[in-house]
Design goal:
Layout (H helix, E strand, L loop, with lengths): L2 H27 L11 H23 L10 H22 L4 H8 L2 H13 L5 H18 L10 H25 L1 H15 L1 H7 L6 H27 L2 H4 L6 H13 L5 H26 L7
Helix pairs in contact: 1-3, 1-10, 1-12, 2-3, 2-8, 2-9, 2-10, 3-7, 3-8, 4-12, 4-13, 5-6, 5-7, 6-13, 7-8, 7-10, 8-10
Length: 300
């Protein structure tokens, strides 16, 4: 199977897991959710790392592989861990107040951030046409966030911060997996998040009210762990701009979960902005594919 196709399948699997993760997180932190768990965001973020980190470390010990996971780039791995923790924390803060489809629509700006940063960091430069597509995509983000609207919720800032963290995280994933592989990079991010967030999570800890809340809390780690592994695999198989557009499939699941659990219906602004973002992203993907098939001449 070609690497491009494998990368696409990994990314589709990853965003499906992330959709389940976000839905569970909103159920746990939103006081208006049917579960009424009302847990602190930092606690949910930490358990997301703890549950799958514990399983990962246990498997490495069982297989006798723990000692092999040494990094030559501890600072870069640490920076990537901070980006992952920041992405998760800011995103969970946002979904506490916003609709699921809103947060994921803003997340769709990630491919544009990746495309802009891939040039100076990875040497994957964009031409004028793709730059115009990026600008169009950001116009879509502005429509979704509607900063000119007096009713704009302040939690939009959290979602934008999560998107910026994710964009840089994507670039760092591509660079690190090319240097040290998927397994090393994946392991350090998981264990790093486990350690980094331990103290603030314990300080804010609230005991879940029932067994359902416990199951939902632990399942965040399951979906987060599998999703992150698929995500890392995807970036190890293809350039970042090529696979970023597959994130758009997450919108359908997020809108479905928002409707089922919270009776949320996508707004006109979300649908219109998402259309511009997705259209621009698809254009970026097509231009990149054409660029790979032919020698780059002139504008890409």
């Amino acid at each position: 199977m070609p690497n491009e196709l494998r990368a696409a399948l990994f990314m589709l699997a990853a965003v499906s897991c992330f959709a389940f993760l976000d839905a569970l997180a909103k159920i746990l932190v939103d006081p208006a959710s049917p579960l009424d768990a009302s847990l602190p965001v930092i606690q949910v973020v930490w358990i997301r790392f703890v549950s799958h980190g514990t399983i990962l470390i246990g498997l490495l010990i069982l297989w006798g592989e723990l000692g092999r996971f040494k990094t030559r780039y501890p600072v870069s791995q640490g920076f990537r861990t901070i980006l992952m923790a920041g992405t998760t924390f800011f995103n969970f803060q946002a979904i506490q107040y916003l609709q699921l489809d809103q947060t994921v629509a803003i997340f769709f700006a990630t491919p544009f951030i990746v495309s802009l940063l891939a040039g100076p960091i990875l040497g994957e430069w964009v031409g004028m046409r793709r730059l115009l597509a990026i600008i169009t995509g950001f116009i879509g983000v502005l429509i979704v966030t509607s900063p000119w609207d007096a009713d704009m919720h302040w939690a939009i800032i959290y979602s934008v911060a999560a998107t910026l963290c994710l964009g840089v995280f994507n670039i760092s994933t591509r660079w690190l997996t090319s240097k040290e592989g998927v397994n090393v990079t994946f392991t350090y991010t998981v264990v790093g998040g486990f350690v980094l967030l331990a103290w603030p999570a314990v300080e804010a800890w609230v005991w879940p009210k029932d067994i359902i809340s416990w199951v939902a809390l632990l399942m965040t780690g399951f979906f987060g762990g599998i999703g992150h592994y698929f995500y890392t695999c995807a970036h190890s198989l293809a350039p970042a701009p090529n696979i970023a557009p597959y994130m758009y499939s997450q919108l359908l699941l997020m809108a479905l979960f928002g409707f089922i659990f919270f009776d949320d219906v996508p707004t006109v602004a979300t649908l219109l902005g998402s259309s511009l973002i997705i259209g621009s992203g698809i254009y970026l993907f097509n231009r990149e594919m054409k660029k790979q098939k032919t020698a780059p001449k002139g504008d890409a």
